[in-house]
Amino acid sequence: MDSHMVTLQAWLTEIYQQDARRIYATLVRLLGNFDLAEDKPQEAFLL
């Protein structure tokens, strides 16, 4: 893994940790489904 990829992964991890709860709450409200909303933020941040 090159240094750019490591930097990007660290940046995305930080964003995910800061915003995961807010993203989850928004998805629950929009989708109306707790289980579906739980999986989507993780999938979006996978590299």
Spell out the blueprint of helices and strands:
Blueprint lengths: L2 H29 L2 H12 L2
Plain-language structure description:
The protein is mostly helical. The chain has one domain. 87% of the residues lie in helices and 0% in strands. It has two helices and no strands. The chain is elongated and about 40 Å long. The chain starts with a helix and ends with a helix. The mean pLDDT is 84.
- Write the element-wise H/E pattern from the N-terminal end onward: HH
Q: Please tell me how large the radius of gyration is.
A: 13 Å
**What global shape is seen?**
elongated
Helix content: over 70%
Helix count equals 2
Structural class: mainly alpha
Number of domains: 1
Short structural description:
With 47 residues, the protein is an all-alpha fold. It has two helices and no strands.
Features:
87% helix, 47 residues, mainly alpha
